[in-house]
Amino acid sequence: MSKVATFLKSDFVFRFRRDKVAVGSFIVVMALVLCAVLAPLIAPYNPYDLTTIDIMDSEIPPVWDKSEGDARFLLGTDPQGRDMLSTILYGMRISLTIGFFAVLLQATIGVAIGLLSGYLGGRVDAFFMRLADIQLSLSTLMVAIITLAVFQAAFGAELYSELAIFMLVMVIGIAEWPQYARTVRASVLAEKHKEYVDAARVIGMSQWRIMVRHILPNTLSPILVISTIQVANAIISEAALSFLGLGMPVNKPSLGSLISSGFEFIFSGSWWITVIPSIVLVVLILSINLLGDWLRDVLNPKLYKD
User: Fold this and answer.
1) Distance from C-alpha of 233 to C-alpha of 225, rounded to nearest angstrom
2) Which residues, in sequence order, are CB contacts of 286 under 8 Å at separation 6+?
3) What is the extent of the structural domain holding 175?
């Protein structure tokens, strides 16, 4: 029997199929991710191509507004005259990219520190855990706002707009590593005194190999759960920073930038510029969180209930 067939018959898949919320959340998340990844293929227009944008098409309502809607723009246009559907697809692509790579950076830093802290103990453990306590006492948004504002003031808005994705990934990633470090440390403390670890020491394996080859695989379940939740948190952080003007520039908007750009028009009647990207963001975050909650329950036998 192949590995794929074995996986499809596993208890994990069986529980997944029985949970309608998990199945629905997974379908929504995958649909939105595919739309974002395939944005250049499925978007009616390229919002980054200035030659396709006409300022005279600005603030056109969605197509269901019979009096002023335009069949060319299904979800209407924004203040720059860009097609909202295309801009949302490209913006969601940027939001997911930042969320994914920020979490990848968090996991890399946090898992490495958690392994070292839990396995070595002593002063190494005390140093890293106090560092994690200090980091956790600071709000991610507060650290990000100060860092990005100082960078913009020091190097200018033009350079920042070119490095916006890189800066957001770095700031959000570095600010959230303690979540992984503390979880991995707890798992390592529970694993490092077990017989298989003692056996690895006896046969002369190095500490690094024991940590990576034997202990790390037994911490993957909580890491997977945290990663799912943290992707949603990273997307929210990016959206909040973009809303405050410290995220993606107007010419390469994320979902947060789109919400921000239309906020001043919401009371003038152009509600769709803010409301539609907000709905997409809420649906994306809610679906990821529901999927993460299910993973947490199903990967912890003490929490899962049939």
Assistant:
1) 13
2) 25
3) 11-298
- HSE at residue 291, side-chain half, CA atoms within 13 A, is 21
Contact predicate 239/255, CB 8 Å: yes
CB 233 within 8 A of CB 121: no
Q: Which residue has the tokens 């403390």?
A: 189
Domain count, the chain: 1
CATH of the domain at 157: 1.10.3720.10
This prediction's pTM? 0.84
- Structural tokens at position 146: 């100060």
- Comparing CA positions, the residue from 215, 171, 217 lying closest to residue 193 is 215
In a domain, 27, yes or no: yes
List the pLDDT tens digit at each of the 306 positions of the chain.
566 666 666 677 777 788 788 888 899 999 999 999 998 888 888 888 777 777 777 778 888 877 777 778 888 888 888 888 888 999 889 889 988 999 999 999 999 998 888 888 888 888 988 888 888 888 778 888 888 888 888 877 778 778 888 888 988 888 888 888 888 888 888 887 787 777 878 887 777 888 888 788 888 888 888 888 888 888 888 888 887 778 787 777 888 888 887 777 777 777 888 888 889 999 999 998 888 888 887 776 554 444
Nearest to 238 by CA among 299, 284, 303: 284
